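ok, trying the design again with the full structure, not the truncated one.
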């Protein structure tokens, strides 16, 4: 296990260096200060987009996330990724809908996390309690509150560091429980604020803890055909 994670401690330089600019990261060889300076310069040369722009682009067939006003297009992650997402979504809905606990969304929904410049991220699965978003809400835009629970499913192109950093990002915005599903090792990494990351194997059981009390699912069920 790794040391406990504290809410808000993920490093902003990660977003700046690896995600923020179009093209390769700049200034990596000469330290964080150079990274921040050159990223800032690159930003001033780029027209920043808004969440409304992102919605418009989606209607035109362009899919992606917005990170501080910069568009990062996303691509389909593959059959296994989609199968796991649908299975977990089914498990969640079978538990949540009869109890009227809240809503479950997929990766095409988007969560609006920052404004001016805007940041909209797309978790693979998100659970919003009814206390955060009423069950009868029919907003056609992005969710403007952080989810209670997020599931990220590692894609073949993702590195361990990338999905780890993304989990920390969700915690920093107020998400209380993050599951990172690792199809290659058939494990699930569980992230909670101020706690050590726990890696569960197929012999273990996923637990909704105080975020989704009473919900359980064996890890093996996530990966079984």
């Amino acid at each position: 296990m790794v040391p406990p994670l504290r809410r808000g401690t993920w490093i902003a330089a990660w977003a700046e260096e690896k995600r923020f600019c179009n093209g390769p990261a700049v200034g990596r060889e000469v330290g964080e200060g150079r990274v921040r300076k050159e990223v800032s310069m690159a930003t001033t040369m780029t027209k920043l987009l808004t969440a409304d722009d992102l919605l418009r682009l989606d209607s035109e067939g362009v899919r992606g996330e917005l990170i501080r006003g910069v568009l990062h297009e996303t691509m389909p992650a593959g059959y296994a990724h989609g199968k796991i997402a649908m299975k977990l979504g089914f498990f969640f809905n079978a538990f949540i809908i009869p109890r009227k606990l809240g809503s479950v969304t997929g990766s095409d929904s988007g969560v609006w996390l920052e404004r001016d410049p805007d940041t909209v991220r797309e978790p693979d699965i998100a659970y919003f309690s009814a206390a955060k978003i009423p069950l009868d809400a029919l907003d056609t835009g992005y969710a403007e509150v952080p989810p209670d629970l997020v599931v990220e499913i590692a894609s073949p192109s993702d590195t361990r560091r990338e999905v780890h950093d993304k989990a920390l990002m969700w915690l920093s915005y107020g998400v209380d429980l993050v599951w990172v599903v690792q199809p290659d090792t058939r494990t699930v990494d569980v992230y909670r604020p101020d706690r050590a990351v726990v890696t569960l194997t197929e012999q273990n059981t996923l637990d909704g803890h105080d975020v989704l009390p009473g919900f359980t699912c064996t890890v093996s069920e996530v990966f079984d055909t």
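Keeping the full-length input from now on. Residues 79-99 form the longest helix (21 residues).
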